[in-house]
Design brief:
Layout lengths: L2 H21 L5 H8 L3 H7 L3 H26 L3 H15 L4 H9 L7 H23 L9 H9 L10 H19 L14 H9 L16
Helix pairs in contact: 1-2, 1-4, 4-5, 4-6, 4-7, 5-7, 5-9
Length: 222
């Protein structure tokens, strides 16, 4: 594939992924093309129908997981840091988020699809290798499976939907620490990020500064 064609394909996949996450899989193809900065004809030449695009986004997403695991396995000193880094990157890049959105549209049609199944096996094998290393280092429970890790990766709540900025970052950090503590065979004493207080939650929903949150006025009894 020529470099310009490869760039266009990557832009389409990134745009489609973000729109699918934001609005579901029925986003008009024309809007995906517009978001990617390409013509509709270019999109359809690469992906002749919606299923082809959904499958390509899923494969691209699984490839990102493999890349993150591969980098962490090569660069981190032990299984604990490797697992922590991969989960943090999966959460930061939202690599687990498309799974429940895309999978219902792909399961039946991809059972005999060699390309999709190979991508799925590559991702599972990468996670399995990371998990084996974490087990060998005593960083996680011995009964953990690849399915457990994939479930953790895809079941994460999205704090930024409730809170923005630093509060969301702290919630993400605390969530990851709680997950890692739960996976560990031994309790860890690493301090968590500062807690998000109720006043901050209140401020997010009432659009007032946290220090100015006041109780709601009580109705007068007559």
């Amino acid at each position: 594939m020529r470099s310009d064609a490869a760039r266009n394909r990557d832009r389409i996949l990134r745009a489609a992924r973000e729109l699918f996450l934001a609005r579901g899989t029925q986003v008009p193809m024309e809007e995906i093309a517009e978001a990617a900065g390409v013509g509709v004809g270019t999109l359809y030449r690469r992906f002749p129908d919606r299923f082809a695009l959904l499958k390509a986004v899923a494969i691209w997403n699984m490839g990102r997981v493999v890349a993150e695991v591969t980098a962490a396995m090569a660069e981190e000193p032990d299984g604990h840091h490797c697992l922590a880094r991969v989960l943090r990157r999966i959460y930061e890049l939202r690599l687990g988020d498309p799974v429940p959105i895309l999978l219902p549209h792909l399961l039946e049609k991809t059972r005999d699809d060699a390309e999709f199944q190979q991508a799925r096996r590559d991702a599972a094998q990468a996670v399995d290798s990371m998990l084996d290393r974490a087990k060998s280092d005593g960083a996680v429970r011995q009964d953990l499976t690849v399915a457990d890790i994939l479930t953790i990766a895809t079941a994460r709540p999205e704090p930024s939907a409730l809170l923005g900025g630093y509060a969301a970052e702290r919630l993400n950090a605390r969530y990851l620490q709680i997950v890692l503590d739960g996976l560990s065979p031994h309790p860890r004493s690493e301090p968590m990020a500062p807690a998000v207080e109720e006043a901050e939650m209140e401020a997010r929903f009432t659009e007032v500064a946290p220090d100015s949150v006041r109780p709601a006025p009580q109705p007068e009894h007559t």
